[in-house]
Structure formats: structure tokens, C-alpha cells
Specification:
It is a single chain. By secondary structure, the protein is an alpha+beta fold. It has helices at residues 24-29, 33-36, 45-61, 116-120, 139-156, 164-167; strands spanning 3-7, 14-19, 69-71, 77-79, 84-91, 94-101, 105-112, 168-170, 178-185, 193-200, 204-211.
Length: 212
């Protein structure tokens, strides 16, 4: 099976990355019948592969257990048995899952490398945000800004509309292969600050964050 990477950024947090190489039949064979059967509601083949890959990865992280994934009113995924907090993301060729103790709010995001982010940067980059260069290009910084805002949005778990440009700010930071940077949301009365962790990979950028 195509477990690409598994790591614990801190003792009670697990992050797994899955390279989506298997076909639908192989993935279904790795899951309990009642879970594998749910994929039939998706008509697009790539959506079925994503859905199945996430659940096989979750099963791997939970040492063979296969709890059902449900969804809160905000759209955030939750485990039916309440055993852990969970966050999910996928991009071309990869899926990722983050697990943390129940009760924490968490968010993870994975984004494929690509030039397209330049064309949409005006939709999510604020005037007080800085796309600093990395290896003579702003692509990594732009992708990290977008990905971090996706992770923060998931972590917020609110039903109200969030404007990534107006309500979420990434403070300036130096882009490295991995590290952390600071952010803040302005959508809620608390205007909660966030520390976002990240890793750069030749195929993708990965960001994650949490708060209690």
C-alpha cells in the first residue's frame, strides 16, 4: 500500500500522507465492506479514489480500526466514535489526514505545486501580506499563504462565510523547507491567533494548525 509519509509533529498529533497509486478495486479490498460500499455515491472516478484513499490512510493511522467519517454542520469531518479530532485534505496524487486528541480543533491542507496560484493570488493575498522569494520564485510563498488559510479555515469550524483576503492574515515570514509562521483570523469576536506549521516537498506544500 502507498503510505508515503507518517510523522508526529508533537507527541499527541499524527499526520499521514498517502500517495494515491492504487486503483479503486485495491482500495476497496483494504476497507470493511460497509465503508467501501459508501463510495458508490460518487460518480467521478477521481473522487472515488480520493474518498477511498483517505479512509485507507485513516485506517492505517488507527492501527486497523475503521470508524465512519461524518460531518459537522460547518462541514468539518468528525469520527463517528469521537475517538479523535480529524482533518482531511487531498491534491493531485496525494491525500493527507491529521489526527489529534478529541476536543482540539485542527486543520490540515495539501496543495500541488503549480503556476496557477499566481493567477488567483489577488483573491486571497492581502496588501499587508508578503510573497517572499524562495529559490528565486514567489510560488512557494503564495502556495503557503493559500494552503495556510485553508488549514486555518478548517480549524475555525464555523458556518459563517470566511473571506480569505478580508478575514485571514499571514504575517511575514522567511520561507524555508519547513518551519512555522504566525497568522490571525478577523472573522470571529476573539480574532484568534494561529501558529501554522509547514513542509515543502517537490510535489506539494503541506500546512497544518490547531487550537483548543
Amino acid at each position: 500500500m502507498a503510505l508515503y509519509q507518517l510523522f508526529s509533529p508533537q507527541p499527541d498529533i499524527q499526520i499521514g500522507i498517502w500517495r494515491m497509486e492504487e486503483d479503486e478495486t485495491q482500495l476497496m479490498a483494504a476497507l470493511p465492506e460497509q465503508i467501501a460500499g459508501q463510495v458508490k455515491r460518487f460518480t467521478a472516478p477521481h473522487r472515488r479514489i480520493e474518498w477511498l484513499s483517505v479512509r485507507v490512510l485513516l485506517q492505517h493511522l488507527l492501527s486497523g480500526q475503521s470508524p465512519d467519517i461524518q460531518y459537522a454542520p460547518s462541514g468539518a469531518p468528525i469520527l463517528a466514535d469521537g475517538s479523535f479530532a480529524v482533518s482531511i485534505s487531498h491534491t493531485k496524487g496525494y491525500a493527507c489526514v491529521m489526527l489529534a486528541p478529541a476536543g482540539l480543533r485542527i486543520g490540515i491542507d495539501i496543495e500541488q505545486w503549480g503556476e496557477r496560484v499566481r493567477k488567483v493570488a489577488s483573491r486571497f493575498m492581502r496588501d499587508d501580506e508578503l510573497a517572499s522569494p524562495y529559490q528565486e520564485s514567489s510560488i512557494a510563498s503564495l502556495l503557503l499563504h493559500w494552503s495556510a488559510k485553508e488549514a486555518i479555515y478548517k480549524c475555525m469550524e464555523i458556518q459563517e462565510e470566511v473571506d480569505f483576503k478580508e478575514h485571514l492574515r499571514i504575517f511575514p515570514f522567511e520561507v524555508k523547507e519547513e518551519g512555522t509562521f504566525q497568522a490571525q483570523e478577523y472573522r470571529s469576536p476573539r480574532q484568534h491567533p494561529y501558529t501554522v506549521s509547514y513542509r515543502l516537498h517537490p510535489d506539494f506544500v503541506l500546512t497544518w494548525t490547531l487550537h483548543s
